[in-house]
Amino acid sequence: MASDGCIGNMFRLLRDVWPKDGAAISPVTVEIYSRVLADIPDDLLQAATVQVLAAATFWPKPAELRKAAIGLRWPDELTGAEAWGRVHAYILKWPAGGRFVGDHHVDPPALPERIQRAVNAVGGLAYLRTSENAVADRARFCDVYDVLVRRATEHAQMLPEVRAVVERLQAPASAQLEAGG
Asked: What is the pTM of this model?
C-alpha cells in the first residue's frame, strides 16, 4: 500500500513538473492525497504517477491518480462488443451446450464471470442459442456488459473505507432480498 516514501516521491515529481502549483501545496493537501491513495501499492502508484505525468497538462487531482492506477491494473478490459464476440464464438463452438467425444460427454468450459452475468441478464445461453433476433440480443448484451464493467470500475476506484460503509448499508437490503422479503 502507498507508503509515505512513495507519496513523497510522487509529490517531488509533481512539484518538478509544476513548480508554481507545488509551492502552494499544504500539509493538509499531502494528507488528503495520502488518504485517498493509501490502498494503492507503491509500484502501481509510481506507474500511475508517470502515466498521468505523460498525459496531464495540469496538476492532477487524487481522483485522476486513482483512475490511472485502476486503469493500469485492468488494461485489457473487454468492450461490450468484444465480449459479445466471445459469446457468439462460444455458441458456435458449443451449440448444444456440450458434445460427445466417443462415449463420454464433454461439458463446455465456463464463460468468464462478467460475461456469464451479462448472458444471464439477457436470457441465458439457451435463449441466445435459439433467438431469432441476434441484432437486438447483441445490443442488449452490450448494454448490460458495459454497465457491469462500469460498476466494477467504480467499485475498484472506491476507497476501502467508503466501500465498507456502502457494504454495511447494503447488507440489510441484501438479506431481505435473499429471504424473499
From this structure: 0.71
